[in-house]
Write a structure and sequence with these properties.
Blueprint (H helix, E strand, L loop, with lengths): L2 H45 L3 H18 L15 H5 L11 H6 L18 H12 L6 H12 L2 H17 L17 E3 L6 E2 L5 E2 L3 E5 L4 E3 L4 E9 L3 E8 L3 E11 L8 E2 L4 E5 L16 E9 L4 E4 L2 H14 L2
Antiparallel strand pairs: 1-4, 2-3, 4-11, 5-10, 6-7, 6-9, 7-8, 8-10, 8-11, 11-12
The protein binds zinc ion.
Pfam families: Peptidase_M23
Organism: Terrilactibacillus tamarindi
InterPro entries: Cell_wall_metabolism_enzyme, Dup_hybrid_motif, M23ase_b-sheet_dom
Length: about 325
Amino acid sequence: MSYLYRTLFLSLLLFCLSTPLVDKNSLAKQSIFDERKALYLKTAAVTGVPWTILAACDQYERNIHRLRTTTNTNEDLIGIKMDEHLWVGLLNPNPKDTNPKSIAFFQGQGKDGNGDGIIDIHSPEDVLYSYASILSLGGPGLDNEKIALWKMYHRGKTVEMITEYAKLYQHFNTTQLEDHAFPVPVHMNYDYQSTWGARRGWGGLRIHEGTDIFADYGTPVLATSYGVIEMMGWNKYGGWRVGLRDPQNNYHYFGHLRGYANNIHEGSVIKPGQVIGYVGSSGYGPEGTQGKFPPHLHYGMYRDNGRTEFSFDPYPYLRTWETKSLQQHK
Ligand SMILES: [Zn+2]
């Protein structure tokens, strides 16, 4: 074999060996979203609960359990975890019961979703069908579903988040909404450092829950993720501010804005990179106070653990999104 042919053959071999690996990963990712959606649609068809609500509940539970476990639950088909005692019925003497007759007798929540004659708490079909059956008890319609969710979680914030996720899934007709963007255009002037946790003086001693991105007045502020605008308005610390909720359990907070983009209001569905406002220096006083510090965007990230919301350092995420945006602008 000539040198040329050998080189060609070797590169072809390397090409064949390397490309399927890349494709396999993205295909696996794509297929789990497809598989989940197929199960949501199937369960929606038999219970009458919209697939978007089921997907939102499932994502909410996935988010919460991800915080409480060290194992990677992202690849599990279903994020919902049912209570083992309620599953078989509180008075059921057999905690591992899988028999539809005895579980029904003890009024367990478990139901046979895939028709295989056993009720299995480890079967995604059985779990989602059982969960959806509880949700459907109050009757059809978003208001009834919200009441059923309230009875399930006893927490307004949880109901609000699930409703927001469902709105996003409905709008984009997918649950694959994981893209991000840097919060100011990367070709403009800006500067930021890691300052999360630094002490703050104004308005009592608080820690700095975010990263300050210094930029000129009027620099567009971009949404960092897909999400729903959960909050807008004045606050004496943050000035004119926006709170954006994404379905991966991040609440993105943008503070000290000069103003908001047109067509942005509470409940708006937002895409990453979309202009939501403009850099300013509002805050540290009564409504309309500006210019008490240099113009900058205060960007904070928060996560919900099912009971309360906590702040975490956005700096590493900002670095990642910035690098990606810079690569796209080349
Ligand atoms: Zn700040």
